[in-house]
Write a structure and sequence with these properties.
The chain is α/β, with parallel strands linked by helices. It is built from 9 helices and 10 strands. The structure holds adenosine-5'-diphosphate (ADP) and magnesium ion (MG).
Length: 244
């Protein structure tokens, strides 16, 4: 489904260069759930933006569903993004004046999809919001708003869903409802990459855990191995810090 090879990303700010990715190689199978963990600034979001076709790498190769994405023009990249990828961010990015069902319909409208209302309602029902179709963002809790954002991505019927810290902006009591929706998606076989600090969730649901540090993948392992027998000293140091 996804194969990245020797990806690098260098940000340039005036005379300063920041190596955000230093040669990331990784492959993801159809239907797999991968959790990415690691300290702040380790390059997780940079990698997610490239996987989500929101940004191009400085060098390296990216194949998505058989297409060599690293060679595409901006227009073609946008097309791939719309057709294949659902992206959910920490910020919900909802439009203040639109109802839940209108938020979900909007990308369908841009994509020229018919039966928008029916598809939007089905997506909202799938995230447990069938009774909130006509609520605006201010009339919804944070957890509900994030579920609208998930429904908006789902309605486009993506091949893969990318989540970048989807629960980090939520109050603790709302985290669980969003994790429940993600767990349900994983069980139904959606291919997912999730950046998260929710270690219990990652351990329970992920097929593999990727640990990133300083722009590189340090360790990739199934959850039990990752949490009980990590191979690298840096993984152990990270885990002892975060699980304390
Ligand atoms: P994470 O998501 O793991 O916290 P990021 O991928 O956001 O890490 O950032 C990796 C590194 O790249 C950090 O040093 C960050 O400051 C830098 N960085 C991220 N985005 C930009 C940008 N748009 N311009 C310049 N530097 C950036
Ligand atoms: Mg980030």
């Amino acid at each position: 489904m996804i194969r990245v090879t020797a990806l690098t990303k260098v940000y340039r700010l005036g005379a300063v260069t920041i190596p955000a990715l230093r040669g990331v190689t990784f492959a993801l199978e159809d239907g797999e759930f991968v959790a990415i963990v690691g300290p702040s600034g380790s390059g997780k979001s940079t990698l997610m933006h490239i996987l989500g076709c929101l940004d191009q790498p400085t060098s390296g190769r990216y194949e998505l569903d058989g297409i060599d994405v690293s060679q595409l023009s901006d227009d073609d990249l946008a097309l791939i993004r719309n057709r294949k990828i659902g992206f959910v961010f920490q910020a919900f990015n909802l439009l203040p004046r639109l109802t839940a069902v209108e938020q979900v319909e909007l990308p369908l409208l841009y994509a020229g999809v018919r039966d928008r209302r029916a598809r939007a309602i089905a997506a909202l029902e799938a995230v447990g919001l069938g009774d909130r179709l006509f609520h605006r963002p201010t009339e919804l809790s944070g957890g509900q708003q994030q579920r609208v954002a998930i429904a908006r991505a789902l309605a486009m019927q993506p091949k893969i869903m990318l989540f970048d810290e989807p629960t980090s902006a939520l109050d603790p009591e709302m985290i669980q409802e969003v994790l429940d929706v993600m767990r349900d998606l994983a069980r139904r076989g959606m291919t997912m990459v999730v950046v998260t600090h929710e270690m219990g969730f990652a351990r329970e649901v992920a097929d593999r855990i990727v640990f990133m540090d300083e722009g590189a993948i340090v360790e990739v392992a199934p959850p039990d191995t990752f949490f009980t027998r990590p191979r690298h000293e840096r993984t152990r140091a990270f885990l002892s810090k975060i699980l304390r």
